[in-house]
């Protein structure tokens, strides 16, 4: 079954795709997708469970991508689904079930019953269809499976399963009934959040981030922002979207050098200038979300007068 194709929708960006380590223009940071040519890079085979990282995505590997190996590598926690199954549980990915759309695809609500897979309980789920026309969509899918397949914490959204069928890449998450923090802060879809709730969200998100940074092998989240903080029915905050996550520096290294990616308004200026990524880059983005929670203003709002467009500048005393 083929999924409907949508044209690629860049978020902003003229200079976002840069060669590793090359500084980029500060005001053009965004998420971006490189060319299609690298799409065929495969994940290397992993025989037993261990923490996988992008170093496992060897570009020289010619090993065929095998879903069963993949499942074994990530432990027993994830379910593999077919496109047909995910289409059935989302009523054919119909627009009535659309939860939202990001830079890399649409997210649809679905319901699984307890007959779909042994061990999978009946529940509402969110199904993300990754747009994998180029390498970046595929990498984001793989990063989600690698990181969220292995990291479990009350303040990280739970990845239930995935689909890897021909060139289709989908992800199945626990459904978060209150959607994203971004929707609550800026889209006026519900009543204004109380200060107590804002504090609860800030603390929950901080715990999720602290868990990632404090892991035996620290993980840099790289995309901390209001749209990636999802809210449970009681406003428990959970981090979602690990498509840009990176393993932290190892050994004596102080940072990871990487192509600059993230979201304008949230990314730490020193990372944008140098491509040097550290856990502190996430802490900067956390500070930006705190400002959003405090002011109710977006990190970047081009509809405002110039001096007020960037929240961090506007908030400076
Ligand atoms: N597990 C989930 N439960 C409920 N709603 C979800 C879930 N995952 C995503 N959503 C909704 O779908 C929207 C789109 O999510 P997605 O992660 O694709 O994009 P985004 O975070 O808004 O943007 P970007 O692509 O820049 O990260 C979210 O803002 C949220 O409202
Ligand atoms: Mg997101």
TrEMBL record:
EC numbers for this chain: 2.7.11.1
Domain annotation Protein kinase: ranges: 93-317
Top-level taxon: Eukaryota
Binding site for ATP: 128
Any matching Pfam family: PK_Tyr_Ser-Thr
The reaction(s) this protein catalyses: L-seryl-[protein] + ATP = O-phospho-L-seryl-[protein] + ADP + H(+); L-threonyl-[protein] + ATP = O-phospho-L-threonyl-[protein] + ADP + H(+)
Keywords noted in UniProt: ATP-binding, Kinase, Nucleotide-binding, Serine/threonine-protein kinase, Transferase
Gene Ontology MF term list: ATP binding; protein serine/threonine kinase activity
InterPro entries referenced in this protein's UniProt entry, alphabetically: Kinase-like_dom_sf, Plant_Ser_Thr_Prot_Kinase, Prot_kinase_dom, Protein_kinase_ATP_BS, Ser-Thr/Tyr_kinase_cat_dom, Ser/Thr_kinase_AS
SUPFAM superfamilies recorded: Protein kinase-like (PK-like)
PANTHER family in the record: OS01G0588500 PROTEIN-RELATED (PTHR45621)
Family of this protein: Belongs to the protein kinase superfamily.
Protein's name according to its UniProt entry: non-specific serine/threonine protein kinase
């Amino acid at each position: 079954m083929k999924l409907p194709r949508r044209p690629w929708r860049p978020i902003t960006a003229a200079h976002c795709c840069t060669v590793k380590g090359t500084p980029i223009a500060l005001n053009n940071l965004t998420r971006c997708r490189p060319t299609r040519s690298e799409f065929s890079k495969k994940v290397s085979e992993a025989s037993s469970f261990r923490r996988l990282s992008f170093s496992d995505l060897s570009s020289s590997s010619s090993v065929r991508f095998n879903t069963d190996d993949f499942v074994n590598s990530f432990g027993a926690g994830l379910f593999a689904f077919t496109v047909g199954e995910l289409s059935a549980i989302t009523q054919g990915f119909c627009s009535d079930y659309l939860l939202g759309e990001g830079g890399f695809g649409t997210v649809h609500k679905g319901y699984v019953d307890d007959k779909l897979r042994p061990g999978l309980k009946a529940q509402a789920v969110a199904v993300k269809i990754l747009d994998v026309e180029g390498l970046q969509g595929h990498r984001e899918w793989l990063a989600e499976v690698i990181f969220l397949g292995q990291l479990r914490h009350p303040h990280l959204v739970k990845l239930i399963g995935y689909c890897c069928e021909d060139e289709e890449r989908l992800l199945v998450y626990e459904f978060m009934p209150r959607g994203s923090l971004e929707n609550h802060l800026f889209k006026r879809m519900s009543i204004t959040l109380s200060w107590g709730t804002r504090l609860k969200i800030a603390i929950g998100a901080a715990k999720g981030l602290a868990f990632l940074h404090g892991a035996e092998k620290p993980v840099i989240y790289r995309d901390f922002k209001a749209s990636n903080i999802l809210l449970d029915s009681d406003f428990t905050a959970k981090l979602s979207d690990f498509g840009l996550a990176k393993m932290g520096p190892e050994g004596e290294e102080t940072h990871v050098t990487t192509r600059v990616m993230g979201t304008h308004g949230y990314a730490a200026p020193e990372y944008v200038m140098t491509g040097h990524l550290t856990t502190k880059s996430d802490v900067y983005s956390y500070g930006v979300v705190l400002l959003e929670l405090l002011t109710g203003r977006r990190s970047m709002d081009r509809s405002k007068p110039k001096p007020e467009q960037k929240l961090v500048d506007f908030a400076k005393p």
